[in-house]
Automatic annotation (TrEMBL):
It is an enzyme of class 6 (ligase). Pfam families: RTC, RTC_insert. GO terms for molecular function: nucleotide binding; RNA-3'-phosphate cyclase activity. It comes from the Eukaryota. Residues 135-460 form the RNA 3'-terminal phosphate cyclase domain. This is RNA 3'-terminal phosphate cyclase. The gene is LOC101869688. Belongs to the RNA 3'-terminal cyclase family. Type 1 subfamily.
Length: 487
């Protein structure tokens, strides 16, 4: 059963609209009309069973933003009507105010076929191509795709790197991340230079040992850890990662968040790691260093984080370093407590003001993190950084308001943790379920590329168990069950 052929002009228009290109005379991906409810989005709107292709056919469609040379371009299908077209004209349903991409009330993923995943590293003709300018359009696409390329042995080309940013191309922290992945697996990297908008990466075998990544700027060490950690978990021996740069940087998780929130939650996938903060580094110089010790595992276990429980503790730390007085830390702490007290009156709030020792910090910086712990072990946080001309009370209030927003939606993870869990859910063996607030664009991007480069299948559903006024969702993933061949 085949759909009628669409004129070449329409196919060319679709390719231009959705950012795909021709390879060897064929279109890398021609999306069916029923997928095109919003030309800005690579996600597909929900469709009726009458108009969607059979699942066996869908499995081989080349994904948005990724071109694979073995894929046959699909023909167009007749237009259908979405199952839930009430929310917006396109028939898709927007997941939260910050999502930025329409997504159906239920979405199933499509991964690469088993033959492609299980084959050894392919030759140049089999290189997977990723468009780094779609969706989030930043460094996350690079981190997720290169980590999975390393893990799965898939030669990779990423083009239009960070096309969605004011300064497209590789920045020092992105280049450092690529270099540590290259060194971890003795791979080959081409195009690895500051400002480059296209790289090719050919992975080798993941090994353990000591590896160093130095941004030589205030680039986030936590983002370096994000790209390297999934890889070393499937290495041949224990790893020691020396990550140098900014420990408390804008537009990235603070190292305090990594230690206080990310670490205890991600270890539920059945692995542990040690994070030793040798020295803190701040904008603009960086100069911080974190040492990660981690041992490989045979496989990752799935997680189930769907029970929120009640908040039992609220704690945190407000810090200053360098030339700043401890008074500012006390002001940040007091402002955060006052803000939280307006909503939560019956809990003791313990936010410690701290001045970092001079021998354990490089440069001058300040900030605060506030964590709420629940009866089921959920951890949600809010954080903020100080900067020149910014009132210390405002810093504390920003962190408190972020925490309260994360508590209000009823999820078990906060907005910052959502996307960081996706790659581990995709690699785990079994079904993982996480309850969250509105799905962020970073999370949608991570899901999209994790699905397309692995056999993992994700679904996102609106939680029906909670207060209808709460914007709560269940992210479910049937993991690919990655097995460490070295153990």
């Amino acid at each position: 059963m085949f759909a009628p052929r669409v004129p070449a002009r329409c196919r060319l228009e679709a390719n231009r609209t959705l950012g795909f290109r021709r390879r060897g005379g064929d279109v890398a991906r021609c999306p069916p009309l029923w997928e095109r409810t919003d030309p800005r989005s690579p996600y597909q709107a929900p469709r009726s069973s009458a108009t969607a292709p059979h699942s066996a056919q869908r499995r081989h469609l080349a994904p948005a933003g990724i071109a694979h040379p073995h894929r046959t371009p699909p023909t167009y299908q007749p237009t259908g009507t979405g199952r839930d077209s009430r929310s917006q004209p396109g028939g898709g349903r927007r997941l939260g105010p910050s999502a930025g991409t329409p997504l159906g009330s239920r979405r199933r993923g499509r991964g690469l076929c088993e033959r492609q995943l299980c084959s050894p590293p392919a030759m140049d003709g089999d290189r997977v191509e990723v468009d780094g300018g779609i969706m989030e359009g930043g460094g996350q696409i690079l981190r997720v795709s290169t980590a999975l390329s390393c893990l799965l042995g898939l030669p990779l080309r990423v083009r239009r790197i960070r096309a969605g940013r004011s300064q497209p191309g590789l920045r020092p922290q992105h280049l450092s991340g690529l270099e540590i992945i290259r060194d971890l697996c003795e791979g080959k990297l081409e195009g690895g230079e500051i400002g480059s908008t296209e790289i090719t990466f050919t992975p080798g075998k993941i090994k353990g040992g000591t590896h160093i990544a130095d941004t030589k700027t205030a680039g986030s060490v936590c983002l370096l850890m994000q790209v390297a950690m999934p890889c070393v978990l499937f290495g041949a021996s224990p790893s020691e990662l020396h990550l140098k740069g900014g420990t408390n940087a804008e537009m990235a998780p603070q190292i305090d968040y990594t230690v206080m929130v990310f670490k205890p939650i991600v270890e539920k996938f059945n692995f542990t790691f040690n994070c030793n903060i040798k020295k803190r580094g701040y904008y603009p110089q960086g100069g911080g260093e974190v040492v990660i010790h981690i041992s490989p595992v045979k496989e990752l276990s799935p997680i189930n984080l769907t029970e929120r429980g009640i908040v039992t503790k609220i704690y945190g730390r407000a810090f200053v370093a360098g030339a700043l007085p401890i008074k500012l830390a006390k002001e940040m702490s007091a402002a955060a407590v006052r803000c939280i007290r307006k909503e939560i009156r019956d809990l003791y709030i313990n936010i410690q003001p701290v001045r970092e020792p001079d021998d354990q910090a490089f440069g001058t910086g300040s900030g605060i993190i506030v964590v709420a712990e629940t009866s089921t072990g959920s951890l949600l946080a809010g954080s903020s950084l100080g900067k020149r001309g910014k009132n210390s009370d405002k810093v504390g209030i920003e962190a408190a308001e972020m925490l309260l927003r994360n508590l209000k939606h009823g999820g078990t993870v906060d907005d910052s943790l959502q996307d960081q869990l996706i790659i581990f859910m995709a690699l785990a063996k079994g079904v993982s379920r996480v309850k969250s607030g509105p799905i962020t664009l970073h999370t949608q991007t991570a899901i999209h590329f994790a699905e397309q480069l692995t056999k993992a299948k994700f679904t996102v559903t609106k939680s029906e168990e909670d207060d209808p006024n709460q914007d709560t969702y269940i992210i479910e993933c049937q993991g690919m069950g990655m097995i460490n061949p070295n153990l």
